[in-house]
Design goal:
The protein is of the alpha/beta class and 369 residues long. The protein folds into two domains: 199 residues, Medium-chain alcohol dehydrogenases, catalytic domain (Quinone Oxidoreductase, Chain A, domain 1); 139 residues, Rossmann fold, CATH 3.40.50.720. The chain is 26% helix and 23% strand. The chain contains twelve helices and 17 strands. The strands form three sheets. Strands 3, 4, 5, 8, 9, 16 and 17 form a seven-stranded mixed beta sheet that branches. It has a six-stranded parallel beta sheet with strand order 12-11-10-13-14-15, with helices on both faces. Strands 1-2-6-7 form a four-stranded antiparallel beta sheet, with no helix packed on it. Helix 5 packs across helix 6. It is globular. The two termini are 17 Å apart. The chain binds nicotinamide-adenine-dinucleotide, ligand AHE and zinc ion (ZN). Nicotinamide-adenine-dinucleotide binds next to helix 1. GO terms for molecular function: alcohol dehydrogenase (NAD+) activity; S-(hydroxymethyl)glutathione dehydrogenase [NAD(P)+] activity; zinc ion binding. This is S-(hydroxymethyl)glutathione dehydrogenase. Belongs to the zinc-containing alcohol dehydrogenase family. Class-III subfamily. Its EC number is 1.1.1.284. It comes from Limobrevibacterium gyesilva.
């Protein structure tokens, strides 16, 4: 079949809106009509050329929601008409990682996913006979896409696609980092670096679990009002702090934060986030994704004296199990997604969504087909 898609043809160039060929689902695969997709900073990271796994030409997008149109042989858990959210972190429930119960990082298809192909080593997308690659196993910047059955969460049919698509990455990553990875307790003090599409969900998660102090750090002063609405108790603009940021934050949190979250992808900020965590027990969670060749540094003494440096992918969530529950939380009014979706754009304006993010004018732009 043919499908409309936004193709990343080369690093740093706008997406090219094209009609490409899409082969139907093979064994264990599912054809999905994508109804809506968010634009996450990770899409921009890969499009910019900073992603060591970036492949061109590819169809980016990993924050979608849609409907099952067709299933391949031996697909048992999904059928035509089911509403689904694609999962860049699948959940096979059979691999060593899934069975360990220690991580959400299912490895069943990770190797081929990183190479931009389906588990059988081929791409379902092509253009003029040449392959166009998948991205994060999801490629939601295509109106129709093919995914392995284990990379789809079945969700309730009354959930609005243009809202719950955000659960496919940003919402789950932010809330999950608080609940699953950091395991923040009521009364905790926390610092969130970066108040964008991920950081504001961390703030929202911190409020949900009853954190007492939620400090937000961002260079963009326009982030303040929305962050306060989501539960931020103190705003810090590093550009306005006299002297070093770390001692300032340590004093503000009365000795260091119990939990800190880096939601930017800046290795210097990752160091600040670790070093303003409380001596003896502070945990610092890396969420931001840093470009090829970048490394983090700190004095080992920071760790010797009890700070813990850790990271999270997809908020530690097991997608097929956890995503339908998070959709329920939204539908029950426990989560605010609506206020974070600042722009809804038709597919033809997808590049405007990237521009809004680069200029710091959006939290989440959602593209509808
Ligand atoms: P975003 O662009 O919406 O937000 C980034 C925020 O950081 C902006 O508000 C910006 O003003 C702020 N910022 C930039 N530089 C800063 C600095 N030096 N100090 C303080 N604030 C600064 O991006 P997003 O969609 O929220 O994504 C954030 C990061 O999380 C990205 O690196 C993205 O790739 C990553 N991410 C990781 C996961 C994961 O599973 N680990 C999931 C989703 C996104
Ligand atoms: N490909 C990059 C790393 C990109 C990355 O860390 N991706 C996160 C999700 S970001 C979603 O917005 C992730 O899930 N990582 C775990 C994994 O297995 O990819 C690189 O540096 O090579
Ligand atoms: Zn993302």
């Amino acid at each position: 079949m043919k499908t409309r898609a936004a193709v990343a043809r080369k690093a740093g160039a706008p997406l090219s809106l094209e009609t490409v060929e899409l082969e139907g689902p093979r064994e264990g695969e599912v054809l999905v009509e994508v109804k809506a997709t968010g634009i996450c900073h990770t899409d921009e990271f890969t499009l910019s050329g900073a992603d060591p796994e970036g492949i061109f030409p590819a169809i980016l997008g990993h924050e979608g929601a849609g409907v099952v149109v067709d299933v391949g042989r031996n697909v048992t858990t999904l059928k035509k008409g089911d509403h689904v959210i694609p999962l860049y972190t699948p959940e096979c429930r059979q691999c060593e990682y899934c069975l360990s119960r220690k991580t959400n990082l299912c490895v069943a298809i990770r190797a081929t996913q990183g190479k931009g192909v389906m588990p059988d080593g081929t791409s379902r997308f092509s253009s003029d006979g040449a392959p166009v690659y998948h991205y994060m196993g999801t490629s939601t910047f295509s109106n129709f896409t093919v995914l392995p059955e284990i990379a789809l969460a079945k969700i309730r049919a009354d959930a609005p696609f243009e809202k719950v698509c955000y659960i496919g990455c940003g919402v789950t990553t932010g809330i999950g980092a608080v609940i699953n990875t950091a395991k923040v307790e009521a009364g905790a003090r926390a610092v969130v670096f970066g108040l964008g599409g991920i950081g504001l969900n961390v703030v929202q998660g911190l409020r949900m679990v009853g954190a007492e102090q939620i400090v937000g750090v961002d260079l963009n002063p326009n982030r303040r009002a929305l962050a306060e609405k989501f539960g931020m108790t103190h705003f810090v603009n590093p550009a306005e702090v006299q002297g070093d940021l770390v001692p300032y934050l340590v004093e503000l949190t009365k000795g260091g934060a119990d939990y800190t979250f880096e939601c930017i992808g800046n290795v210097k900020v990752m160091r600040q986030a670790l070093e303003c965590a409380h001596r003896g027990w502070g945990k610092s969670i890396v969420i931001g994704v840093a470009g090829a060749g970048q490394e983090i540094a700190t004095r080992p003494f920071q760790l010797v004296t009890g700070r813990v440096w850790m990271g999270t992918a997809f908020g530690g969530a097991r997608g097929r199990t956890d995503v339908p529950r998070i959709v329920d939380w939204y539908m029950e009014g426990k989560l605010n997604i609506d206020d974070l979706i600042t722009h809804v754009l038709p597919f033809e304006k997808i590049n405007e969504g990237f521009d809004l993010m680069r200029r710091g004018e959006s939290i989440r732009s959602v593209v509808v087909y």
